[in-house]
Automatic annotation (TrEMBL):
Domain of life (superkingdom): Eukaryota
InterPro entries with a match to the protein in the record: BACK (IPR011705), BTB/POZ_dom (IPR000210), BTBD19 (IPR042846), SKP1/BTB/POZ_sf (IPR011333)
Domain BTB: 29-98
Pfam families, per database record: BTB
Residues passing through the membrane, by range: none
Source species of the chain: Bos indicus x Bos taurus
Protein name, entry field: BTB domain containing 19
Length: 253
């Protein structure tokens, strides 16, 4: 029986530092990206991106033709966020900032870290441009989180601002843009006066399906958190206390 060879492990820090030096470095780069509305040029290396991320493997699967290849244009991706993703792919670590948590490219581990960062810095993150540029699939795990440090009233306002930006960019109605995510808003957590104000605003600028507001009113009328099927009533970490919450009987986990 052959004796297994000795496995030698080098130091991780110098290896990570060396790879970090290649992030956005034109040296040996064989793929260019034009990123964001500012059209910032970013240099990368095809083999590294393809072996680390299925998104880039699909994106870069075709062989470049002769001559200087055209850059890959990602106009809707903020440059700061894209560079954070590259840093993670190259070094398996990245320093997250409020402006750089918007793009994850299907990287599960990085997505989890981004969500955790936003949960801890909810109010600041909701006010950033990066939040307004989130895709609906990226926004969904945030709105489903119990750990957001923000009150539901503020989250409803943030969702409306997000939908308005998407509606302007996509030239679609606000309610249509909001449809994939708005069901995750926990309207039953709002006090009756807040729910009435939201209902009035919703008449002027539709955002939330009427039946969803009706379900929230049902919870108030019956004073039971389980009165309306499918209406989330769990308090989030940042939910401000309201008198009716004692009837919901669904505390923060």
């Amino acid at each position: 029986m052959e004796t297994p060879g000795l496995v030698v492990h080098g130091e991780a820090a110098p290896f990570s530092t060396a790879l970090r030096s290649l992030v956005n470095n034109p040296l040996y780069s064989d793929v260019r990206f034009v990123v964001g509305q500012e059209r910032q040029e970013v240099f990368a290396h095809r083999c590294l991106l393809a072996c680390r991320c299925n998104f880039f493997q699909r994106l870069l699967s075709s062989e470049p033709g002769p001559g200087v290849p055209s850059p890959v244009v990602l106009s809707t991706v903020p440059a700061e966020a894209f560079l954070a993703v590259l840093e993670f792919l190259y070094t398996n670590s990245a320093k997250l900032q409020r402006h750089s948590v918007a793009v994850t490219f299907g990287l599960g581990q990085l997505q989890e870290r981004c969500v955790a960062f936003i949960e801890a810095h909810s109010q600041e993150t909701l006010r950033t441009r990066g939040f307004l540029e989130l895709s609906a699939p990226a926004l969904l795990p945030l709105l489903r989180s119990d750990k957001l440090c923000v009150d539901e009233a503020e989250l409803v306002l943030a969702a409306r601002s997000w939908a308005r930006v998407g509606a302007a960019v996509l030239e679609r109605p606000v309610a249509e843009v909001a449809a994939p995510v708005v069901r995750e808003l926990r309207l039953a957590l709002l006090a009756p006066a807040e729910l009435s104000a939201l209902e009035e605003q919703n008449r002027r600028e539709p955002l939330i399906p009427v039946e969803q507001i009706v379900e929230a009113w049902k919870c108030h009328a019956l004073r039971r958190g389980d009165a309306a099927r499918g209406t989330p009533c769990r308090r989030r970490r940042g939910t401000l206390p309201r008198e009716h919450h004692r009837f919901l009987d669904l505390p923060f986990k």
